C-alpha cells in the first residue's frame, strides 16, 4: 500500500513536517508512506492544461506530481492553518491535482487530514476548508474523530517527534484507520 503524504508547509523544520515525519513512522507494517514535495510546483495556470492554448506547455513538475498522486492508494494531508484557511502552497497542489478535468489525480482517493496550529483550535478552519475543496473529487475522508492538534508547538519534543504518548496513540489510531479505509476501497 502506498500513501502519499502532503505537507502544507514549505519550511524544512516546520511543525507540520515534524508531525508528518512522525506520522509516517506510525503507519502499520506494509504501508509505504512518503512525503510528496510541493514547494517546487509553479503556481497553477489553466493555460497549462487548456488544449486551445498551443504555445504553453504543461510543466513537467505538474505531470510528475499528478502521476505520483494517481499511483497512490491514499493521501494524508498534514497542514497548518494560515489566516483561517490552508496555506497557499497546499491550495496550489490541490489545484494542480484537479486538472485536467478528464483525468483528476485526486478522484476517489481515500484521504486523511491532520491539521495543527499553535492556537487552541488545532487548525480547525484549515481542515474544514481543505475538506470542502477535496469533497469535489469524491475523496472519501475519515469520519470522527478528526485530528486537530492545538498548541502544536508544545506537542513536539526536542527530538522533533510528537509527544505526549496519548497524542502519539491518537495519531497512530488515525493513520491505522486511514489504512483500513484504503483497504476497503481497493
Automatic annotation (TrEMBL):
Q: Which Gene3D superfamilies did the record assign?
A: 3.40.50.360
**Pfam families associated with the record:** FMN_red (PF03358)
NADPH-dependent FMN reductase-like domain: which residues?
1-152
Q: What GO CC annotations are associated with the protein?
A: cytosol
The record's annotation in InterPro entries points to: Flavoprotein-like_sf, FMN_Rdtase-like_dom, NAD(P)H-dep_reductase
- Which GO molecular function entries does the Swiss-Prot or TrEMBL record give? FMN binding; oxidoreductase activity
Question: Entry's SUPFAM superfamilies?
Answer: Flavoproteins
Give the protein name, as stated in the record. Oxidoreductase
Organism of this sequence: Corynebacterium phocae
Amino acid at each position: 500500500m502506498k500513501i502519499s503524504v502532503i505537507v502544507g508547509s514549505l519550511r524544512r523544520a516546520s511543525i507540520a513536517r515534524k508531525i508528518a515525519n512522525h506520522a509516517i513512522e506510525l503507519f502499520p507494517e506494509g504501508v509505504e508512506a512518503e512525503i510528496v514535495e510541493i514547494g517546487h510546483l509553479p503556481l497553477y495556470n489553466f493555460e497549462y492544461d487548456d488544449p486551445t492554448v498551443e504555445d504553453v506547455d504543461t510543466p513537467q513538475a505538474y505531470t510528475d506530481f499528478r502521476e505520483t498522486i494517481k499511483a497512490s492508494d491514499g493521501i494524508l494531508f498534514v497542514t497548518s492553518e494560515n489566516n483561517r484557511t490552508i496555506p497557499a502552497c497546499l491550495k496550489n497542489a490541490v489545484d494542480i491535482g484537479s486538472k485536467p478535468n478528464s483525468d483528476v489525480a485526486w478522484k476517489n482517493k481515500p484521504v486523511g487530514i491532520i491539521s495543527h496550529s499553535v492556537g487552541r483550535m488545532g487548525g480547525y478552519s484549515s481542515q474544514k476548508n481543505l475538506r470542502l475543496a477535496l469533497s469535489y473529487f469524491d475523496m472519501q475522508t475519515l469520519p470522527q474523530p478528526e485530528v486537530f492538534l492545538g498548541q502544536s508547538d508544545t506537542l513536539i519534543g526536542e527530538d522533533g517527534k510528537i509527544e505526549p504518548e496519548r497524542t502519539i496513540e491518537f495519531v497512530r489510531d488515525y493513520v491505522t484507520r486511514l489504512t483500513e479505509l484504503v483497504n476497503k476501497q481497493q
